[in-house]
Design goal:
This protein is mainly alpha-helical and about 100 residues long. Helices cover about 50% and strands about 10% of the residues. The radius of gyration is 13 Å and the shape is globular.
């Protein structure tokens, strides 16, 4: 069971938020992908967290070019490349990237 943590991370994670995160997203990617049960829990967390990020954003349609499974697959791919990174930080990076695509 993951603990609730205020989201102000150390220098190694280099991201700070103005809200609190709870659940599996506060754990490293390798934890999320370690068992089928945790992967299912993480998939649900990802969709909820993405929805929360979207609702706080001026553009409420970030990621609308795909569906929930598409978002999960992109997050999973990034997590496989950075297994020690927190799941929520992988998502924050992807959300920023999709919100401001290169021109």
């Amino acid at each position: 069971m993951a603990a609730a943590i205020p989201v102000v991370l150390g220098v190694s994670q280099a991201q700070a938020y103005d809200y609190m995160a709870v659940g599996i997203g506060t754990m490293p990617c390798k934890y999320w992908l370690s068992t089928p049960q945790l992967e299912g829990e993480g998939n649900t967390w990802i969709l909820g967290w993405w929805t929360g990020l979207d609702s706080r954003n001026d553009n409420h349609w970030v990621g609308s070019s795909t569906d929930g499974n598409g978002i999960i697959m992109v997050v999973k791919k990034e997590c496989q490349h950075s297994p020690n990174k927190l799941l929520m930080n992988v998502m924050a990076d992807l959300f920023k990237k999709w919100n401001h695509p290169p021109r």
